[in-house]
Amino acid sequence: MPTTQPLISIPILTYNGEKYLREQLDSIYAQTYKNIEVLAFDDGSTDKTVSILHEYHLKFGLQYTVHAKNLGFLKNGEYSLKACTGDYIAPSDQDDIWKEHKLEVLMNAINNNMLIYADSSTMDEQGTKFDDHYFGSRWNLIEGNEPLKFVFGNSISAHAMLFKRELVDKALPLPDTMDFHDWWLVFCASCLDNIVLYPEPLVYYRRHDRQVTNVNKKKSYTLFKRFKFREQRLIKNRTKILEMLKSFQSYQYLDPKKAQLLLDIFNNMILYKTVYYNKELEKLLTENADTLFYISKKSTKKSKKQISRLCGGIWYHRIRLYT
Fold first, then answer.
1. Domain stop point among 185, 206, 227
2. 88 lies in the same domain as 194
3. pTM over the 0.85 mark
């Protein structure tokens, strides 16, 4: 008998994911919601990832694409979204574990909203699960249609989302200025319609130990080189913020008043190489701090520090670095 359930596409971006991939795929195929298509997009793995994908293709019908050359995370994400044919899309990481009722719960709760997402619990590399460690305990999880809350940060991960296919049509192409496609998707979704939160964790998000590189090299830096490194990092971060601001401000479905605010912030922030401390920028950010810096649970305290950093010009930071 044909199913009456809408089709959900589940795109997975893979890259050297052999260690945990089977656990994630098993949790997807164990979902209580059955009308799914699972699409994997491998970005040049050199381990056994592709062999695992082929194994699940034979067993469950998983469809997979192996790119001839590495696209990078953002472009691979865009490629995957274009390939989805379902009425709804639920992206997946390659190393998490979904609770078996995740898709069913989100489908029952999305209603007419553009995007729904759940909270996430964490687990370690060995698979030990920590149900008392979840995203909502650290971050304010956003609902509604206020896109400016995503300008300086994002608390909604792709692995927890379910959204309408319509969002892809109005969010692509992904701007090159973004590092992560989920950040851009939630910004666009909040411009177009409502984002809703399902407050219980439905995903176990796997945390990895990240090796600190070049520690010994940094320890051997002279004092001047350390300051220079921090200054270059500051300039790089400021450049990135400006690029992202421009992308957000230019999105065609953003409310014109909000777009003008972002343009005003951009035009002030771009002066950081010539202005010691930008009081006009401080005024703009302070007046809108409750929205722009909403995500942190300690938003009031943290926003004051962040505003000071953003308003300071290069000489302001040089003096702070060198004294």
1. 206
2. yes
3. yes
